[in-house]
Amino acid sequence: MSPYLTFSPASLVNMSKAGAFDLASGLGGKIEKNDVLSAVDKYEKYHSDFGGAEAERKANYTDMVNKYYDLVTSFYEYGWGESFHFAPRWKGESLRESIKRHEHFLALQLGLKPGYKVLDVGCGIGGPLREIAQFSSTSVMGLNNNEYQITRGKALNRAAGVDGTCDFTKADFMKMPFSDNSFDAVYAIEATCHAPDAVGCYKEIYRILKPGQSFAAYEWCMTDAFDPNNQEHQKIKAEIEIGNGLPDIRSTRQCLSALKDAGFEVIWEKDLAKDSPLPWYLPLDTSHFSLSSFRLTAVGRFITRNLVMGLEYVGLAPKGSQRVQSFLETAAEGLFAGAKKEIFTPMYFFLVRKPQ
Ligand SMILES: C[S@@+](CC[C@H](N)C(=O)[O-])C[C@H]1O[C@@H](n2cnc3c(N)ncnc32)[C@H](O)[C@@H]1O
Questions:
Q1: Pocket-forming residues, ligand 1, beta carbon under 6 Å
Q2: Residue 219 Cα, ligand 1 centroid: separation in angstroms?
Q3: Of 58, 76, 188, 246, which has fewest CB within 10 angstroms of its CB?
Q4: Is residue 33 part of a domain?
């Protein structure tokens, strides 16, 4: 990537290595550039604001989720970095530092030991996987159903020098191509919320985990404060679903009971958003300015919006790019509103064990 092609106030402070050129060239993922606009149309139609229904999203979850990640991955990498998740925030930490600490916490809770064979369920482009493998001297396999993200992740693994110990498998986490009892530890970061059925997904994780070993995750959930009969709450939930490729956001209680139904023994669980010294949603707060996450600030988003418009106009970014940018903005608004009302959390943590 030429630094001259990179419009990047943020690269000055090293928030994300992806610049405007990567944003434009990666937009649409594996979708043919001429088909991006129609893919956006099809994606939007899965959601309630565009007449879609939950049953249809669940029945077509592979198509819906893959379209979503083909369309948004380069935006994520550009704005957020290599790890696509939130984190509790502490004073004095950059977003990147908080994200790494959140990843280390999982490694610590799982008791990872050198030599362990670990599975990352729904691994994105592998930011957490590289960090956790290096932090704990383990081999981590990333499971992901999105081909574009795997191609990107493999290139980043080679660049980080972890390609000898870490790899990716392209498959659906509802039916994993691994034998029973084959992993020493499993984790999932903000990924299993895409599952059409939590019990089915957790049962697969249970099957491939060795007896006596642990599974830990951060789940996206509606909290007890969510009232399904409140129209404003419903609107916020729908905004989060469309903006994030989700069939239906489960409650913390539903996740907990699904874990038990799958056969797990619950060690402990907690919504970590409750104890975050600074709000986890700080990066989504447009009134907040941060140099280290400049692209997420009001000014940064304004620049990105115009940049995408310009790139689409001159043909460097495919037609439909601005529409993707727009539903991502809807997502950010929904997440922020859900967070302020405390009806939504992206960090419902649990540590569970497969009995001996
Ligand atoms: C929000 S991203 C989180 C990625 C990663 N855990 C991270 O924190 O950077 C959710 C991930 O789950 C993956 N995913 C969604 N549904 C999946 C499925 N049915 N099977 C496998 N992976 C899936 C997506 O492709 C994406 O990589």
A1: 65, 69, 83-85, 122-124, 127-128, 143-146, 149, 172-174, 189-191, 194
A2: 12
A3: 58
A4: yes
